[in-house]
Structure formats: structure tokens, C-alpha cells
Amino acid sequence: MSLVLTFPDKRFKLQLEHPMSVADFYNYSHANPELVMELETDGSITVMSPVTFRSGKIEGIFTTYLGIWSIETGLGEVFSSSTGFTLPDGSVRAPDTA
Sign of the C-alpha dihedral, residues 75, 80, 85, 87? Predict the structure, then answer.
């Protein structure tokens, strides 16, 4: 397994002994809520830095509009950027809004 650290201009990959399962990833992420992480298809983890002030503001506005649309139309559900979704390929992603 590897741990990928993402910085503005560099990525660092730490080699770990075993690929992380989805269950292990959820346990690890709940034990380390200060880390923004995603699980890759190969069992490695990507750790990301927080978004910039401007990007976070835009993300918040977009999530608000999406939430209003969902309430007004009665369609869909809205989730924040800290929600992890397990995809069919086994990866776990946390989109900006969903």
C-alpha cells in the first residue's frame, strides 16, 4: 500500500506493506478526521491539502444552490465535500459537492 501526499507542486508516495481495503480506509479516516483523503483503486491513499479560501467559497455557494434546488424540486440528495463515496472500481472519492 502507498500513502500519497499531495502538495501544491509535488506528490509524495510512501510505500506501505499492504493495500488498504475500503473498510480499513473508513476506519483510518474516522481515526484521523483532520486528514482529507481518498482511496485509490490500487489500495493506496491520496492525502490532499485543504482548498484555498476562494475555492472553498465557490464550493460553499455551489453546494447551497444545489441544496436549494433539491429542496424546491424534491429531487435528489445533497452531500458535503467531506462525504466519501465508494465507487464501483473500489476507490473512495470525496467530490467538492454531490
Answer: positive
Q: List 15's β-bridge partners, or say none.
A: 2
In three-state form (DSSP H/G/I as H, E/B as E, the rest C), the secondary structure along the chain is CEEEEECCCCEEEEECCCCCCHHHHHHHHHHCCCCEEEECCCCCEEEECCCCHHHHHHHHHHHHHHHHHHHHHCCCCCCCCCCCEECCCCCEECCCCC
pLDDT on residue 9: 58
pLDDT per residue as tens digits for the range 11-67: 555 556 888 889 988 898 888 888 888 888 888 888 877 778 898 899 899 999 999
Q: How far is the C-alpha of 61 from the C-alpha of 47, rounded, in Å?
A: 24
What's the pTM value of the predicted model, to 2 decimals? 0.71
